[in-house]
Amino acid sequence: MEDANAVEDRDLKFLTLAVEEAYKGVECGYGFPFGAVIVRNDEIVVRCHNLVRKNTDPTAHAEVTAVREACKKLNRINLSDCEIYASCEPCPMCFGAIYLSKLKRLVYGAKAEVAVVAFGFDSFIGDALRDIEHCQKDHLEIKRADGHGALIAEQVFQDTKSKFNMYSSL
Length: 170
Hints:
By secondary structure, this protein is of the alpha/beta class.
């Protein structure tokens, strides 16, 4: 049986890297503060951040980009032996990509509502994700970080909020 503290430490390690990616994307001017890390056998497959502004592509979210890059790197579309760590609760599009790629585990930091409030995103995103844990399927475990993991994930929105005027003007 795995030690619960070891699991928590491992989750915090990879979630912290996802949050670092969120900051990196903002610093580069590539997109909003969202990051994702895909892990396989405790090794990082890919680290990605939001590329919406850089690519002028509203689908270039961190999680979708991470799924795309992991599939390319591993040369397959089934990521059932991988996990994804996301700085924020995935939107419906990202959740769809995670589900369709058959990732076995999703760990996320901030709740979607934090991003909705910070950037004025349409509340549809938060509403669509209400109780995401109820969406769990046989092949996908979903876990929201708590404690320090949740705090560092939520802090990225406060730290970067001033870099964005309004969502609708971007």
